[in-house]
Amino acid sequence: MAGHFEATPGGGAAVALDEVEIAILRSLAVQLLELIGPGDEPAEGEDPLAALFAEGPSEPPTDPALARLFPEAYGDDDTELRAASAEFRRFTENDLRTRKRDDALVVVRTLDALTPQPGGASRSDSGEGGGRRAGGAAVLTLTADECRSWLGSLNDLRLTIGTRLEVSDEDGGEDGSLYRLPDSDPRKPMVMAYLWLGALQETLVETLMS
Predict the structure, then answer these.
(1) Minimal CA–CA distance to 107: which of 145, 164, 67, 134?
(2) Are 161 and 64 in contact (CB under 8 A)?
């Protein structure tokens, strides 16, 4: 189980993580939350139902990572397509941001449930949404719904990091340049995180499809 997800009864999955891996995943998820931004709470006295149907932005984000997370729906080849993309974004981006935010929060909360208590036990030994200590690693056990949130956030994290690293399709393969970076390259830690997240994502996908 170490380093890769395995299926659990009920459509869930489990993976063994050490303290460093837990800290890295939590830090990345928190940074993703900060990048996405806080949700828009209804102002005092405002109708919550009206706020629910509030229109979002019509222009794509200027931050390249956010633009990757919230891409144009129809491209920008001509004026008509740009107008269609703007209209689509206006009515979908707020919901998409909420979903991505909720997924990242699930990652943070399930990792927080693994914080060891005195005596080496974790907060939850129930097998759902928590974990147990095993061989010096915390076993993260996810429900089916939590797996879907994790899968979404792992994908969002890889898109974000890949954008920051300016990764191309040719870079990530086993013969790609990412695997040949010298240890002295300042990008190396982020590249290692990018590749590790990809491996986690792949095993989670395989587990959910099995």
Answers:
(1) 145
(2) no
